[in-house]
Write a structure and sequence with these properties.
This protein has 490 residues and is mainly alpha-helical. The chain has helices at 66-75, 79-84, 90-100, 105-132, 136-147, 149-161, 176-205, 213-241, 250-282, 284-297, 301-306, 312-335, 337-342, 348-360, 362-373, 377-405, 416-433, 440-459, and strands at 4-6, 12-14, 20-21, 26-28, 34-36, 41-42, 209-210, 437-438, 476-477, 482-483. Strand 9 and strand 10 form a beta hairpin.
């Protein structure tokens, strides 16, 4: 069942679940000093380990082998992920219909929405395969970052397609409210929906699961800090917009909120770099030990170790293919948002808080739930909290900073409805993480809270001129009676 190899002297060594490494064997010298013998390394399957590759990620192959590449990618990480791969036929159909029937807006949106799921799933699988070849902490961070690539692509496409200039009425398409809602929606999808399914799935097989404080406490603290930072621009705007004691014009207030948002984004970005440094450099040994213990608790570890793996080149090829598909689907999806919102009367809140995050986070959610099912709760929470922190401290601030460079008024002036939901979600998640244990009841409660939020956002109306979400100032200028409209959508 396991690989076999011959050592010097003709003795046979069986590769077990532990790595076999000839490079670290020693023989005594005549003076009693041990001398290190240099030789090849072999992993649990008897494959010779490439220098710089972790034994668990060694494929035993080099380059690209089309048959192995397709077979391993189709197998994916779990049965759930493998089932998602049946959606791949939607990918060429979604691309084709965009060019053959450009007037079929609903079909284009729906097909590209579905096609995004298998493409994102391939990113998640290739990221996991790549992470296996690297040290544990760095691998998890890289896998989480790659899982957020879909989100970054969607944010950048939304920002590029945004046109909030009222003077250009023909091409007016203000997507900034959708971006803001999607930032918070991504956080909510991770904290409530994904973590809820992790707790629920793990609780179905065990009465209770435990996780380490090194994962939960650091994550909870960073989320509170991120929530505080994200809410400052909205609090700033709300306190001054209705104030009669402060003499400030609407466009002056808009400029100040934009400046506060940009400064806040830079600070949050620095906090993310500090968090990565903390995990990878100063405290990496703590996380290594926690994740190592979690690997030993994996019920399917023996099966995962025996599975065929992608080569490094195949991992990169899979990422290129998946990111290309995701980028195409994101462009086609975003082009139809205006039609869906205005003609089909889907609110910006529901589009941003629910629809966009669900598709962009699909791969990460499947991976995390599978890990919780296999009793790897620390790995599951590392993905859930890591993805949430990345959105709050990196992806969200990044889109503001990029908008700054593109001279687009992307800010963090969230609706009060969204702001309150975010703070309550962080409090709820922090309370469930506090005791270091989870069960299916806590998971079900998180999912139910998310359903309530989805129902509320579906019924939430789009802001209109003169409402709480927008404001408009009109001024007549001389005999011409020209009207200047100053819109600033929150």
């Amino acid at each position: 069942m396991f690989g076999r190899r011959k050592e010097k002297g003709g003795t046979t060594t069986h590769a077990t679940g532990q790595d076999v490494e000839l490079a670290n064997t020693y023989e005594p010298k005549e003076d009693g000093v041990q001398q290190k013998q240099r030789g090849p390394r072999y992993n649990h399957n008897g494959d010779k380990v490439t220098k710089g590759i972790h034994p668990h990620g060694e494929s035993g192959r080099r380059g690209i082998h089309p048959h192995h590449f397709i077979r391993i990618s189709a197998r994916s990480t779990s049965k759930l992920s493998m089932a998602v791969n049946v959606l791949w036929p939607f990918v060429p159909v979604a691309i084709a219909i965009r060019y053959t029937h450009p007037e079929a807006h609903v079909w284009i949106f729906a097909l590209n929405y579905i096609a995004m799921v298998p493409s994102a799933n391939l990113i998640g699988f290739a990221g996991q395969e790549l992470a296996r070849k690297l040290p544990k902490v760095f691998g998890v961070l890289l896998e989480t970052f790659l899982g957020g690539i879909v989100e970054i692509v969607l944010f950048m496409v939304l920002l590029h397609k945004n046109n909030d200039d009222p003077a250009d009425a023909e091409h007016y398409n203000n997507l900034i409210p959708v971006i803001r809602a999607a930032i918070l929606g991504s956080i909510l999808a991770n904290l409530l929906l994904c973590m809820g399914f992790c707790f629920f799935a793990g609780g179905l097989r065990r009465e209770e699961q435990s996780f380490d404080a090194a994962i939960s406490e650091v994550g909870s603290g960073l989320l509170l800090m991120a929530g505080f930072g994200l809410m400052i621009p909205a609090a700033f705007f709300t306190s001054l917009s209705g104030s009669t004691s402060v003499d400030i014009t609407p466009d002056g207030l808009t400029d100040k909120v934009l400046n506060v948002s940009r400064i806040t984004s830079v600070v949050l970005f620095l906090a993310f770099l500090l968090y990565v440094w903390f995990q990878m450099r100063t405290h990496h040994s703590i996380y290594d030990a926690v994740l190592e213990r979690d690997e030993q608790r994996d019920h399917d570890r023996h099966k995962d170790l025996k599975k065929a793996k992608l080569t490094l080149t195949e991992c990169i090829l899979a990422l290129v293919i998946a990111i290309t598909c995701v980028s195409l689907h994101a462009v086609f999806l975003v082009e139809e948002i205006e039609y869906i919102v205005h003609e089909r009367h889907i609110s910006d809140a529901f589009m941003g808080l629910i629809l966009v995050p669900l598709v962009e986070k699909a791969a990460e959610h499947l991976t995390a739930v599978d890990e919780a099912w296999d009793n790897q709760m620390n790995f599951a929470l590392a993905h859930v909290l890591g993805a949430t922190i990345q959105t709050a401290l990196f992806n969200g601030p990044l889109v503001v900073i990029v908008g700054w460079g593109l001279h687009k008024a992307m800010d963090l002036n969230f609706e009060i409805f969204n702001a309150v939901i975010l703070i309550l979600a962080i409090i709820v998640a922090g309370n469930f993480l506090r005791d270091g244990k989870s069960n299916y009841l806590e998971g079900a409660l998180c999912i139910l809270i998310y359903i309530i939020i989805a129902a509320a956002s579906f019924s939430y109306p789009n802001p209109t001129e003169g409402s709480a979400g927008t404001s408009e100032v009109s001024s007549a200028t001389g005999d011409q009676g020209a009207v200047e409209k100053l819109r600033f959508i929150r």
